[in-house]
Amino acid sequence: MKRLAPVLFLLAAACGPMSPERAARICEERARAATGPTGEIGIGITSDGDARGSFEIGITSDYLQGRDPYEVYETCVRQKTGQGPVRPLVLE
Fold first, then answer.
1. Beta partners for 51?
2. pLDDT per residue over 34-68, tens digit each?
3. Residue 57 and residue 52: Cα distance in Å, rounded?
4. Of 45, 61, 62, which is closest to residue 53 (Cα–Cα)?
5. pLDDT value at position 14?
6. Helices (H) and strands (E) in the chain, counts
């Protein structure tokens, strides 16, 4: 049991709240995704001369539910840190 105690301590510490700055970065991305669909288009030519393309689209449940991005940000930060945001959300 003595060998297991340090492992349990580390696991418990890993489950604790994250830093406010890290939470802000993660939650800013989530709030941006709540503003609308995101996407990516790629076009290229292989070394054999063949044309290749790709298309990706992302839609979050926050967007589908019509949630306010500022509310998404605030709620997300509070869930991750247990406190309010350290900086305001700026959507550009």
1. 45
2. 999 989 999 999 999 999 999 999 999 999 999 99
3. 17
4. 45
5. 59
6. 4, 2
Across residues 15-24, what is the average pLDDT? Answer: 86
Which spans in the chain are helix H?
4-14, 20-33, 61-64, 69-81
Q: Which two tokens stand for residue 33?
A: 């995704």
Q: Which of 81, 75, 88 shows the shortest CA–CA distance to 30?
A: 75
Task: Judge whether 33 and 63 are in contact, CB under 8 Å.
Answer: yes
Task: Please state, in angstroms and rounded to a whole number, the distance separating the CA atoms of residues 65 and 62.
Answer: 5
How close are the terminal C-alpha atoms of the chain, in Å?
Answer: 53
